[in-house]
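USER:
Class, as today's exercise, take the chain set out below, and explain how the chain folds.
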Amino acid sequence: MLQILGLIGNKWSILIIGQLRDRTLRFGELHRTVNGISQRMLTLTLRQLERDGLLTRTVHPSVPPRVDYTLTELGATLLDSVVALGEWATTHRHEINNNRHRYDATHPTQTPS
């Protein structure tokens, strides 16, 4: 159970599932829309999501090869939770940022001796 929670609680997995909620995307499209993810991390996360049956990977025989990613029925069952988490983060981001600034101002970073 902890391994599964670790996967679906991973920020990259959540962002990828959120991007695939309405449509099929190619690797390059996912890379552009998931801000901050490296190509390697995107590849690793997509493989894990495919392995767990949360998305499908379809290779189209073309030059260059076209690879599409789509949520499976199982992956789609996560959408309500992923969307709710995203909405919560959006709603509270200013409050959290303010709390971080206030904390950082009163707790100076200590350098190791």
Notes: The helical segments are 2-8, 11-19, 27-33, 39-51, 73-76, 79-106. Residues 79-106 form the longest helix (28 residues). The chain has six helices and three strands.
